[in-house]
Amino acid sequence: MRPILMKGHERPLTFLKYNREGDLLFSCAKDHNPTVWFADNGERLGTYRGHNGAVWCCDVSRDSTRLITGSADQTVKLWNVQTGAQLYSFNFDSPARSVDFSVGDKLVLITTDPFMGLPSTIQVKQIARDPNEQSSESVLTIKGPQGRINRATWGPLNKTIISAGEDAVVRVWDTETGQLLKESDKETGHQKTVTSLSKSADGSHFLTGSLDKSAKLWDARTLTLIKTYVTERPVNACAISPLLDHVVIGGGQEAVHVTTTDRRAGKFEAKFFHKILQEEIGGVKGHFGPINALAFNPDGRSFSSGGEDGYVRLHHFDPDYFNIDPIPVFLARGGTLKNEDFVA
Amino acid sequence: MAVDMGKLRWGELEDDAEDLDFLLPPRVVVGPDEKGVKKVIEYRFDDEGNKVRVTTTTRVRNLTRARLSKRALERRSWPKFGDAVQEDAGARLTMVSTEEILLERPRAPGSKAEEPKVAGDPFAAMGKAGAVLMVCRTCGKKGDHWTSKCPYKDLAPQTDSFIDKPPGAEGAAASPAGTGKGTYVPPSMRAGAERSGTEMRRRNDENSVRVTNLSEDTREPDLLELFRTFGPVTRVYVAVDQKTGVSRGFGFVNFVNREDAERAINKLNGYGYDNLILRVEWATPRPN
């Protein structure tokens, strides 16, 4: 495959998001302008101008009319996707790290970083249908986890909130009361900062990537650990294929070490794993720096990666990607097939 | 602020470049025509204050596979906004990688990389004496032949991305004064450039078979697959429209042995392939 290189950002990429139909790709970077691209040919459609700091995360509404972005300039902004006009700006006292629309787009989940003595928070805000009636009041504020909360997302039916961050613990909270319901086990869970969290297409399970050089697959309801994918690089980004039983994991050595080592030593490929067999099935090279963001097109036929090098690389899979059979390699490595692995 | 074009000095230009833009003719977009070739003609001042015309030719191809929803189609026609508005066609923010990136499969422990093997290779005997130093960069064979002599040269991976080359790669500048040079055509695109160089020589190879009535999706590897069963093949070529990249429906296959070619003609002429009936015959040499 010949990836499409998109060089719209001047600073490292931080996040990538497709809209529901998979025709638009939103990219966030440490420069201040989130950008939207056509996801098939990589043409730039527009930029959202107004932030005054690194943009860490974004989410797009189901009908692709509203974009929400969280930035280090201590604001979360709501945008009109089509015109790039800013509709509303939520102001915080600390940088916003992650944003996520609920199912139905009526609520938004925002996490803020610990800053100037303030603890990190998870906040829920209502999104008004008419932006003129938008209020900045939080419906729910959760405090407690130590350190940055890198990702927070809605659990099944918006009933729970799943969060993960610097303290390496994955937590499930009750949306109504804000109470802690479940916590991942310290023994089997991640050992270092969780950097990314990505839900499956149906929301039944999710994948977390961590600097402990592994990614883990969890059940969204019970928070049981299902699978672990071990790699040899810190994981910055991960995504679950909506089409095949694949997960993709990206990362690489920290940016500060890049200049002192060989390019190959950086391990900047995006690694594909078989979701069930936990077997590596392939790697896609290309970035000159660690991968900070990964996203699968909702049709599962293309994926994009964003790197510390400022490039977004959009890959449309070759036909042979869809015929990869991981079982021979798996068996050659001494793996055994278990029946229950294939019964969902 | 009216500035007389005749008396411009570079010093003034430096400062007022922005203000002079109104003197330029507007941007013209031609096409896309039925072959999907779109031309954008822009005018700007270059560093020396000369008016320059920039013609960017891009190929637009609709993806048949991509089934866009009604909403997505509507979004296609949304006007650009933000920084994308002033983006000129030459900005090249989006490029197709020139490098072919493969999904690198990990190998099972203990297994070796597969080496491509072709049965009945006429060059196999030659390689026996040769040192291992000879490695073909096209097909990766060791000791068989040099890269320039590779029988599979024409089968080297072809560009099959949906925008060919970086879009706007054919950017060209011509002085409006009209030096009479027209637009720049890259050597690879010039009529008969590479084709006449390397391929004319091999075209006089005998045992050439012409295949017509090919379907549009037939590529060279498909043709090779079809013909290699009759014997060693030295060249497979499918005629492709230079502009649109669509197959023109005919191709040539060269055999090492004349008997193999003859058998192929007997067997495959009238053979049904991709819903079309193939016509296979001896290639007639070009009149010139």
From TrEMBL, chain A:
Repeat region (WD), residues: 6-47, 48-89, 142-183, 187-228, 284-314
Principal localization reads cytoplasm
Pfam families, per the entry: EIF3I
Check the record and name the SUPFAM superfamilies matching this protein: WD40 repeat-like (SSF50978)
Where does it live in the cell? Cytoplasm
Task: Name its GO BP terms in alphabetical order.
Answer: formation of cytoplasmic translation initiation complex
Q: What does this protein do?
A: Component of the eukaryotic translation initiation factor 3 (eIF-3) complex, which is involved in protein synthesis of a specialized repertoire of mRNAs and, together with other initiation factors, stimulates binding of mRNA and methionyl-tRNAi to the 40S ribosome. The eIF-3 complex specifically targets and initiates translation of a subset of mRNAs involved in cell proliferation.
Quaternary structure note: Component of the eukaryotic translation initiation factor 3 (eIF-3) complex.
- Record protein name field: Eukaryotic translation initiation factor 3 subunit I
Automatic annotation (TrEMBL), chain B:
RRM domain residues are: 207-285
Q: Which Pfam families match?
A: eIF3g (PF12353), RRM_1 (PF00076)
Query: Has the keyword Protein biosynthesis been applied to this entry?
Result: yes
Sequence ranges of Basic and acidic residues compositional bias? 192-207
**Where in or outside the cell is it found?**
Cytoplasm
Q: What Gene Ontology molecular-function terms does this entry list?
A: RNA binding; translation initiation factor activity
Compositionally biased region (Low complexity): 166-178
Major subcellular location class: cytoplasm
Output the GO biological process annotations, alphabetical, semicolon-separated: formation of cytoplasmic translation initiation complex
Can you name a GO cellular component term?
eukaryotic 48S preinitiation complex
Q: Where is this region: Disordered?
A: 161-207
Sorted keywords for this record are: Cytoplasm, Initiation factor, Protein biosynthesis, RNA-binding
Q: Does the keyword Magnesium apply?
A: no
UniProt-listed InterPro entries: eIF3_g, eIF3g_N, eIF3G_RRM, Nucleotide-bd_a/b_plait_sf, RBD_domain_sf, RRM_dom
Q: Which PANTHER family does this UniProt record tie to the protein?
A: EUKARYOTIC TRANSLATION INITIATION FACTOR 3 SUBUNIT G (PTHR10352)
Family, according to the entry, reads as follows:
Belongs to the eIF-3 subunit G family.
Q: How does it assemble?
A: Component of the eukaryotic translation initiation factor 3 (eIF-3) complex.
Query: What's its job?
Result: RNA-binding component of the eukaryotic translation initiation factor 3 (eIF-3) complex, which is involved in protein synthesis of a specialized repertoire of mRNAs and, together with other initiation factors, stimulates binding of mRNA and methionyl-tRNAi to the 40S ribosome. The eIF-3 complex specifically targets and initiates translation of a subset of mRNAs involved in cell proliferation. This subunit can bind 18S rRNA.
Give the protein name, as stated in the record: Eukaryotic translation initiation factor 3 subunit G
Q: Which species expresses this protein natively?
A: Ensete ventricosum (Abyssinian banana)
